Model the fold of this input.
Amino acid sequence: MRASKSSPLPGIALLALLAAYLFPVYLIALNSFKSFREIFESFLAFPQSFYIDNYVKAWSSTNFAKAITNNAVITGASVVGVILVTALAGYKLSRDRSRLSWSIYMLCTFPFLIPFYTYMIPLVQLSKTLHITNNPLGLSLIYMSTGSFAIFLFHAFVKSIPREIDESAYMDGCSELVFFFRIIFPLLKPAVSSVAILYALWTWNDFLLPFLVLTDKESATLTINIYKLFGKFGSDWDVITASLMLSSLPIVLLYIALQKYIISGIAAGAVKG
Amino acid sequence: MNRILQRGGKQTASLLLFTAPFLIVFAVFFLYPLARGVVLSFTDWNGIQRNAVYNGLNNYVELFTDDPRFLHSLWITLVFTALTVIVSNFVSLVLAVLIESGSRFKNTLRTLFFLPYVFSLVVVGFTWKIMYIEIIPDIAKLSPALEFLNLDYIGNPQLALYAVIVMNIWFGIGYYLIIYLAGIQTIDSSVMEAASIDGATGWTRFRVIMVPLLMPSISICVFTSITSSLKIFDAIFVLTGGGPGYATESIALNIYYEAFGSANRFGYGMAKSVVLGVIVLIISYFQLKFFKSREVEA
Done:
């Protein structure tokens, strides 16, 4: 007999699969609470006591307080900036049916297909010339230029907002920008949350671009500091596992708190895409 | 007539007003470096000297005829992409169907399978480095039956590429899973029921009905996985650095070492970047075209 819909068996089998899937995460977490000796004896054993010294070391070795501030500034400024400039552009490009508008839309969205490496070298050179290296806000400006995908999403989303709304507002004699921020922007909320989530995830975790333009120790992000650990600590797994945990904690907590929005935001972003 | 022209002018002005903020950063930080890169790819520029010497197609000729390391990285990238795209889409699609069809813990499963995707690839790279060099050998020691697991995953050139691929698939599955789950929810359940009544069994139902109806989701996931695999950098950089030797060096790593390694051949590195860009464009174009022709109306 086949298992019926109400049988818990397939669910339990999938939970077992999930446990195997998350096994690496579990082991990193486990070992982050073990002393170096304990780790050395066996990676698989349970910690004998709750050893939190590793976290104290991880805090300083990742320059955590400074790095997380940098992350927050870069991600915050980039996401706000991207949303602002791409919502404006996406809305107008969707409403304006002229040939010029179509050409601008094409120009703005084609980079979606261009790998970052294609223009990475001149971009890094340019950042040096403009003196925006080692500057979190300068990096945010660069991230704003990667708003193609956001324009694409806003452009598609605006089509679902009836044009009558625009026309009624024009009759009221409202200036276009005021009208956009007062009436249209609040209606874009679902698209705004998709864009915010996707770009926050990308910029928070991004590695190569920050690695190339934030060369100064004090402007480094969490990801950069984690990368540098390996050179510094080789295989001091106690500090390293704790650092991996500590640096991932903020984004994991955020994910757990906002999981419903994150998952529906990603699904919506993909379907629109 | 005059009024129409005036309205046209006003319309254009407002179009430019709304798009200017984006267009300015876009022009400065994307269009300009891209154009400059393409120009520099025809020079011998090394990043330091003021004047780059124009050398025509020399860079392009060299990378295809006299740079086995680059050609190897091209091959590695293609193998990496093919395996990642096939396995991660197959696994996440099957997983999505299993989770959706009568599992009680749908939300928990979806939430936790997605978890690795919120980690940075640097964290993921180190996690798997520890897995490969410490944890799996420890598991192998548990019993003689598991001894076969005790391998040099990262140090062995034959295995290293697969070690990287496994890690990358592990990282991405949750993302594709979410897209497939969203796609399955748009399928009318009466279609599936009708198929069951007509006697279609599990696998046939999956192959003949699910897959065609899910073509839009499959198209998105395949597209995303192809483009992200062709561009792979972070994960390999952290896990193997491209080694041992050049065994896991992707095009992106090859470009990175060319430009920022000891050689400092920026112009030559740019030529490679242009080739990578063209490859991604061509593959994306054919892939989108292929799937467009296979989508069905639900």
